[in-house]
Amino acid sequence: QVVYDMDEQDDFYLSMINKRRLKVNHCYISHELFEIVITFLEKQWHLLSKRIPPKQKYFDIGPDAKEFQDFKNLKPGKYNIAVLNALVYGSDDGVWCGPEQDQPCAICYGSECDNANQIVFCDGCDIAVHQECYGVVYIPEGQWYCRHCMTAKKKEAHCQFCPSTTGAFKQTESGDWAHVICGLWIPELTFKSPVYMETIDNIENVPKGRWNLTCYICKQKCGACIQCANKNCAQAYHVTCARRSELFMKHNLDAGMQNSLHLKNFVSFCDRHTPTTWLENHDIKEGIKKTRLYYQENKKDENNRNSNNNILRWESSIGTPILPNLIWERLIKLLEYFQIDGSAKLSSDLCKYWALKRETKTAPLIKLHDPYTTSNNIKIEEIPEKIEMANFLNGNINNLIKISDDIIKRQQLTLEKFDIDLKNIGNIYFPVIKLIKPVLEELLKLDEENNRLLWEFKPSIFKGTKLEYNIDILNLESIVLKFKLNQYSQSLLEFNNDIKILFDNVNRSKQKTNKVLNLKKLL
């Protein structure tokens, strides 16, 4: 089934392709065939994507895992890879901490929050940040993404001031990325909008000497380092290296982000001048070892990636699909089936165009409904955990249904109370109405049983020899109208008099019609 619909850009490209083909006496490519090809490529890419396993989130440690000496103190079992990475390399963004409710803010490293300053989690990179720390003025319904995941999720962020690629990023004036904590701790840097905590400004004010410092932790001369607060020490280190190594870093973010930005009262010490109270709960020397190991392993991974450049890649660094040769060959066979000459060259051109179109849109070109798709990586031992989570969510849904039912009942009772209050107010302020209403209803019922004689009664008098209607004399319709207009609300006597007048008019009427005669008998 062909799903793709051409747009103006496709039409322009196809006309250009056809002009080239006509010059070499090749057949014309129709719009229908173009849509078939794009649909074919989308479906082939979808099938390929399903077979590519997702990133592994958990790792099993067995009782005989001798190669993992760093995990020798852990019991055998399944562990989150982020937790294991933190045990080996430390963490500078707090993602490793396990359950979301215990995960600290990636900027201030605090886990306390309130209604005005909640902790929000990025659905792209799993970092947690306070609203004030990251400048989240409004928490949207559904998913929330940090600035980097929102604009360049597939491209690794490189901080302008440190070598770390993890954490909470915001952009500088030049469009480069930088950690929010780097913007806070480097004294010369400021934020253009303290409310939204972006963009990071005044980079030109950072002295050249700071750019030339070498971090004593990671041994890298890159970015801009901060220095130990001890007057007799000039030890330099990156902000994120200090965070990963668990150096002493005192801030006043608890007093509010606006006050912190104004005062810039941030103090940190190297491992030699760390207060003894901090050392009681933090192993700084071990933290420095982990940080150095982290950057050493990163360097090895980078070298391996460069050596195996595009061999195993299925997407470019900016997310452009890289079609394997197998799909290209299948497309050639499809074109040959439609008896298209020059199929190899045409297949190559259409594959390139499709990849560029996919890159521009940053999304699939068609919607493929696949309700039966499941992950190929679900292991048997993961099933109980998924069932437990499903039961937990089911319990939450049942509680939500119960709460909704209670809200409906509450609103119904509120409506009933409102009706009762309205009746009581009417009885207090308009007591006559309550007395008149049942009498009038009974009279209307009686009149209805007698063909609405009182309602349609039109009294008349003789003027000379002519019989004329007297519009000033009441009938039942005019009495009901006065009742609806609350003209009897203050006087029961007036209502009584009008009824008497109506009855007297009927009795004194000189009309000889059957209606009037029957009405006189009734009264």
Automatic annotation (TrEMBL):
PROSITE patterns in alphabetical order: EPHD (PS51805), ZF_PHD_1 (PS01359), ZF_PHD_2 (PS50016)
Localization in the cell: Nucleus
One MF annotation (Gene Ontology) recorded for this entry: zinc ion binding
One Pfam assignment: zf-HC5HC2H_2
GO annotation (BP), single: regulation of transcription by RNA polymerase II
Keywords of the record: Metal-binding, Nucleus, Repeat, Zinc, Zinc-finger
Keyword Ribosomal protein applies: no
Coiled coil: none
GO terms under cellular component: nucleus
UniProt domain PHD-type: residue ranges: 102-152, 156-274
CDD domains: PHD_BRPF_JADE_like
InterPro entries noted in UniProt: Enhancer_polycomb-like_N, EPHD, Histone_Mod_Regulator, Zinc_finger_PHD-type_CS, Znf_FYVE_PHD, Znf_PHD, Znf_PHD-finger, Znf_RING/FYVE/PHD
Record protein name field: PHD-type domain-containing protein
